[in-house]
Amino acid sequence: MIGCDGKWAIHPSQIEIGNEVFAPDPEVAERAKRIVDAYAEAMDEGKGAVSVDGQMVDEATNKMAQDIVETAEAAGIL
């Protein structure tokens, strides 16, 4: 869902569906984790960018991946 990353829940019965809708897909979460890990390693090596699955990863891409990883961890996916 583009542009949305959460939902207000006014009743406990809404929590489960909100979590299902806004949690990242497990495959997306795993790829994001690979990106974060690879970028951290690249930074340790003094590189500004790295290739993951054939795509360039820079700081902006890493930040988006970090957000996905944080959401996935909160949802219990990672």
UniProtKB/TrEMBL annotation:
Statement: the UniProt record of this protein carries the keyword Magnesium: yes
InterPro entries: Malate_synth_sf, Pyrv_kinase-like_dom_sf
Keyword Magnesium tagged: yes
Single GO BP term: oxaloacetate metabolic process
Gene3D superfamilies: Phosphoenolpyruvate-binding domains
Molecular function GO labels: catalytic activity; magnesium ion binding
Cofactor: Mg(2+)
Keywords in alphabetical order: Magnesium, Metal-binding
SUPFAM superfamilies reported in the protein's UniProt record: Malate synthase G
Protein name in the entry: HpcH/HpaI aldolase
Species lineage: Archaea, Methanobacteriati, Methanobacteriota, Stenosarchaea group, Halobacteria
